[in-house]
Amino acid sequence: MSLEGLYARFFGQFLLRGQADPLWIALARNLAAGGSVSQAGWLPVVVGTTWFGALVGLWLRNRWGLNLVLILAALSSLHGGAFTALGVLALVLALTRPVRGWAGGPAGP
Questions:
Q1: What is the per-residue pLDDT across 42-55, written as a single tens digit (0 to 9) for each?
Q2: If we measure between CA atoms, which residue out of 80, 87, 85, 88 comes closest to residue 16?
């Protein structure tokens, strides 16, 4: 996601563009000054680089790492295309008993 956002920032179009923009990219474009694509590119850059911090937090067995992974997986699944599949996969894996137990959360029954 970071690469796609940087590509949009530098070249004014998304790298993996399709028929229509994903919902949150269209929202970011509309909220950006002038509605330019390069301004909307900041959102995938932030979400993509935040993944590194979330995974490090999860690896260090911090509860906030699991919470951040869940939030980022939900945001990534809204993006569309391959990011949707990866976001759903990350969400499903983060909700499994071993991962929740690893992060210090309730392992469940």
A1: 777 888 889 999 99
A2: 80
